[in-house]
Design brief:
single chain, about 270 residues, alpha/beta, Rossmann fold, seven-stranded mixed β-sheet, AB_hydrolase_1
C-alpha cells in the first residue's frame, strides 16, 4: 500500500482517504496545514496509484477496502486516530467508524453520504447517480475516460462557479497517474458495488456512529444531493458545515474553509 507521510511520527495520526478519480495528492492542502500538529498520512487506496491492484471486481468490495484500512492502521501500531475521508473514501470512513470505533478518536467526512441515507434516495439523487451505472459497465468506461488525453478530468474537475478547478500542472499530475496505472482497478469499486445490488443494509442502528464526527459538504456537488448530508439521526455527535459555492471536490475547491472547520472541530476535545 503506497502512502505519503509528513510530520512527527510520534504525534497523533491523521489519516486521509481519497475518492474517485483521485489519489493521495488530493489531500495536499490539508497535509501542508496539519503536518505541524499531527503525523499526517495520505494513502493511495487499493487499485489506485502505486498501491497493489488485484484483478477482478470481487476484490474491491467495501468490506475488503475497510479491512485494508484497518490493517494499515494496525501495521503502523496506531490507535486513537483522526480519520478524514472524501467521496468513495467516505464509504471506508463510515465503515471503519462502525466496525472499528476503538481505532478512531474523531471522524471527518467530506461529501460522502452515510450508508443508511441511500435508503432515502430521491428521484433527483437517482438522476445524479446515473454515472455509477455507466462506471460499472465492462470496458466502455475505460475507453471513454481515457479518450482525448483523459479529458474526463477536465470535465469533472470544475469548481463551484463551473470553472477549471486545477491549474494545468496539477491536472497533469492526475492524468499522468491514471495513464500510468490505468482505470480498471478504480472502476472495479463501482462494479463490485453494482454486483452486490440490491444491497441489504443492516438496521440503521447498526450503522450508528458514536465518535465525534464532522461532516463538510460542498453544496454545488453534481453527484450527491445536499439532503444526503443530513445524517443527524445516524450520528450521535455531529457537526455539519455546508459550503455554499463549492463543488464535490471540496478539500481542493475550498481548502481554507475545510481546514478552518477541521481546526475548529479538532480544538473541541
Amino acid at each position: 500500500m503506497h502512502y505519503v507521510s509528513k510530520g512527527d511520527e510520534n504525534k497523533q495520526l491523521m489519516l486521509f482517504i481519497h475518492g474517485f478519480p483521485e489519489f493521495w495528492y488530493s489531500w495536499r492542502h490539508q497535509m501542508k496545514e496539519f503536518a505541524k500538529d499531527y503525523h499526517v498520512i495520505a494513502v493511495d487506496n487499493r487499485g489506485y496509484g502505486d498501491t497493489d491492484k488485484p484483478t477482478g471486481a470481487q476484490n474491491y468490495t467495501v468490506d475488503r477496502l475497510v479491512e485494508d484500512t484497518r490493517e494499515f492502521i494496525e501495521a503502523l501500531n496506531k490507535k486513537n486516530i483522526i480519520l478524514v475521508a472524501h467521496d468513495w473514501g467516505g464509504a471506508i470512513g463510515w465503515g471503519m467508524a462502525v466496525r472499528y470505533p476503538e481505532l478512531i478518536h474523531k471522524l471527518v467526512i467530506i461529501n460522502s453520504p452515510h450508508p443508511a441515507m441511500f435508503r432515502k434516495r430521491s428521484l433527483k439523487q437517482f438522476f445524479y447517480s446515473r454515472y455509477m451505472l455507466f462506471n460499472s459497465l465492462p470496458v466502455l468506461p475505460e475507453f471513454a475516460m481515457g479518450a482525448n488525453d483523459f479529458y474526463m478530468f477536465d470535465n469533472a474537475f470544475i469548481n463551484g462557479d463551473g470553472r477549471p478547478l486545477l491549474p494545468d500542472s496539477q491536472m497533469e499530475a492526475y492524468k499522468y497517474t491514471f495513464q500510468k496505472n490505468g482505470l480498471t482497478a478504480p472502476l472495479n469499486w463501482y462494479r463490485a458495488l453494482i454486483h452486490q445490488l440490491p444491497y441489504k443494509y443492516p438496521h440503521p442502528k447498526s450503522f450508528q456512529i458514536k465518535m465525534p464526527t464532522l461532516h463538510i459538504w460542498g453544496k454545488k456537488d453534481r453527484y450527491f444531493t445536499s439532503q444526503l448530508a443530513q445524517v443527524h439521526e445516524h450520528v450521535d455527535d455531529l457537526t455539519l458545515h455546508y459550503i455554499e459555492n463549492c463543488s464535490h471536490w471540496t478539500q481542493m475547491d475550498q481548502p481554507d474553509l475545510v481546514n478552518k472547520y477541521m481546526r475548529q472541530f479538532l480544538a473541541n476535545k
